[in-house]
Amino acid sequence: MHILVIEDDALLSHHLKTQLSDYGHQVVTAASSSEGEFQANNYPLDVALVDIGLPDGNGIELIRRLREQGKTFPVIVLTARGSWQEKVEGLNAGADDYLVKPIRIEELIARTQAVVRRSDGFVKPQINCGELTLDLAGRRVTVAGNLLELTAFEYKVLEYLIRHHQQVVSKQRLLDVLYEDREGDPNTIEVMISRIRKKLTSNGMVNPVSTIRGQGYRFNDECR
């Protein structure tokens, strides 16, 4: 998983990054609300761990801004306090779970895996990108009301690109989405992107997916 840790305690942040990395996760860190917002807007994430007490703002307000911006990855609140009011406020802002410090890595791993399993990556049941609508419950994509005929793998790739719209997603990351721990042929992604692009453009979309040479692919439309 790609995990963002937003925590201003340098020692705790270092320990979390080290321990989560030891479990095989890719971890980026931020020590402030502004830095965390930048990371969230520039890197594809599977989950974020957000401290409430940050030096330049409240972590709950950061979560609320991220949700308003359409960021849909699961969020776990990290708090040194155990009041039920704070937990409720965090959940109402858009967090998916919370942990009270001190944090045991075993519980953090279990909670992180649980929220990612529960979440399909979206806050709403539908994602709209201009005339494109992604129906998460039905796993269907329509453009201007026309249903796209997608294979299961094409749907997974398009869904992931939409989840990370306007971000560059590497070919290897898309292979991981399709095959998990299994090996896949990188040429499979190229063929799939070509087919997806053709299906979208034939229904009136203009330049829906860009190829960024040497980096990956980007879904260009703004989604909400």
Please name the CATH architecture of the largest domain.
Answer: 3-Layer(aba) Sandwich
**Could you say which structural class the secondary elements and strand pairing correspond to?**
alpha/beta
Beta fraction:
15-25%
What's the pLDDT, averaged over the residues?
A: 87
What fold name goes in the CATH topology slot of the largest domain? Rossmann fold
Largest sheet: 5 strands, parallel
CATH class of the largest domain, named Alpha Beta
| Tally of strands | 13
- Principal-axes geometry comes out as globular
Count the DSSP helices. 8
Separation of termini? 23 Å
The share of residues in helices is 40-55%
Radius of gyration, whole Å: 18 Å
Provide the succession of SSEs. EHEHEEEHEHEHEEEEHHHEE
Low-confidence stretches: none
Number of domains: 2
For the biggest β-sheet, the strand order reads 2-1-3-6-7
Spell out the CATH superfamily of the largest domain.
Answer: Response regulator
Give an overview in words.
It is globular, with a radius of gyration of 18 Å. 42% of the residues lie in helices and 22% in strands. It has two domains: 117 residues, Rossmann fold (3-Layer(aba) Sandwich), CATH 3.40.50.2300; 94 residues, Winged helix-like DNA-binding domain superfamily/Winged helix DNA-binding domain (Arc Repressor Mutant, subunit A, Orthogonal Bundle). The strands form four sheets. A five-stranded parallel beta sheet has the order 2-1-3-6-7, with helices on both faces. Strands 8-9-10-11 form a four-stranded antiparallel beta sheet, covered by helices on one side. The mean pLDDT is 87. It is an alpha/beta fold and 224 residues long. β9 and β10 form a beta hairpin. α6 crosses α8.
